Amino acid sequence: MQMEKEVDGLGGTADGEEEVIPLQKVNWEHHGPWSWVSVCSRPGVRWVCERTKSDEFSEVASGLTRTWSRRLKMKRYRPLQIKYPDPALALAWKYVEGYFEQSYDAVFGIVHRPSFEARLHAHFENPTAAAQDDGPSWFALRNIIFAAGSRCVLAADPTVSFVQAEVQAAQYFQNALSVFSEIIFGHSGFTAVQALALMAFYSEGLGSPALEYPLCTNAVQLAQARGLHREPPKSWGLSASDDLNRRWLWWAIYCLEKQIAFRSGRPSLIDDNNISTTIPTSAPPGSTNDVEAFTLIVRHAQISSQISHRIMSVKAFKQAPAQVLDTVHDIHNKLQELLHSLPADLSVDPSESGDSRRPRPRWTQSLYLHFAIHGSLMATHIILFYPWIAARFGTESDPVFHNQVLSSSKTIANSARQIIRILRSVTTDIAAPAWLTFYYPMYAHINLFVYLLKFPSLSSVLGDLALLDMCTGHFGHIEHVTNSDISFHFPRESAALCLKFIKANQPQGRERETAPGTPQAGANPTLHSNRSRNDLEDIDSQLTSSASRDLTNGNLFDAMDIDVESWNIFSSIDITSDLTAAFGAFVPVEKETNESSTS
Fold this sequence. Notes:
The protein is an all-alpha fold. It is built from 23 helices and 2 strands. The chain has 2 domains: about 200 residues, no CATH class; about 260 residues, no CATH class. It has a two-stranded antiparallel sheet. The chain is globular, with a radius of gyration of 25 Å. The N terminus and C terminus are likely disordered.
């Protein structure tokens, strides 16, 4: 990963990394410029600092990347010298029941419950003989189900803390991880693919180290090596049940990999044009597969793949503005169609009180579809929304492009609101996945934060500030539940910075239209009808004012020669260094005497 030598706004050479940091000490993580950490990139931080006329955000962003990076790897990982024993018989079956009946990823039917239970029964009846059955793969598979199942069981026990539950579940996960090398480098088959897939899903948990990327990568490669992405030949003579299990396993891995690639901004390992395995329309008898929900999740993953390929790739970044607008419109329409096709029992209403109305797995599936679709809507429009990316097009004077920037800003704000409004219905415990409790809430918070900095004088500002506070409360609750083991202060600090900026930019001689101090539970996903037209006019006015000021004073990004060669400026996040030190102190711009309300 290259890092531009780019300090104090000066562009550097594309291969200048060695001039700044010795290669052996580089600790950068690649994330695409559209990812949730884009605002923590150098251009993102510089834009916020310029907008707020303060260098305060550089430390706020640095704190986020430092805190987040701690969860990317396991602390002091050492291979197990002695493996943990299987749980007692009764407890093992309790964990198995917990996994298949309460775990979110059971919906994917990665493991056929009757087959697994028969195999586990044989294992406990004769462990020595059963160990010869599949060796490391079977050892990993049963242990990862014990790990995931114990989470579900312990999440329902109020006497067990989050940290205690994670420590107990982690024993079985470490067992599974201890045979990782044997699975990858030894002889392995279908069971190995199942085990790796479940290990990746387990790593999606809130309390887990974020190992899902390497685990899912290996699951994909092993699955493709076994030909799961291709239609099986009839000569194999697979039974109907085996054929369905094989197909569903592939599509489960596909969905997970596309989601991980999408939110990290990294290229997918799966070429959609090389898949011939069809999506089944039924599940094997006894399977926990929810065909309806799973099929909708696959449809979303396929659209997500298009976003990554058609909007977020290096090739797409070279497109002309007109092509970009056409692509954004096309994918936006696909996502809206998917959103409107959700059945009533998989739709989410912010007035709902959580999983009390539906079984937890079904409610979590509903939340996933709600968060994922709105997250994809934001990602689809982000290239036109983030100023440090949109500046690349240099078409502020084009009315078509200008109007699309307005529309994209509004779409992103609406989707961010829809995610944040539902957070009060999210159950935060050891069984909750990180995409539900961390990724989508943080993505929504950051985008609404940027929206408020761009348009600080809208009539919706008070309601949006309340939503930022709601998101801050969500992350405060996570810190409380986890006994400060998981602690992100970015929402609180950025919300405070945003409030300070809003107060400093109140329109002179004008009373802002009152917006609700607390977001209404059943609020419409679009802006309230009685103010949407006024807000759109306000957005247009503020955006025009900002563009005019850039033309007068020089655009913040003029010196950066924004093109595909500058890609790494946007996509490299230093996960350890102090961003303030990297920039030098920010020198506030002197305010003009007749400064507009959006300066």
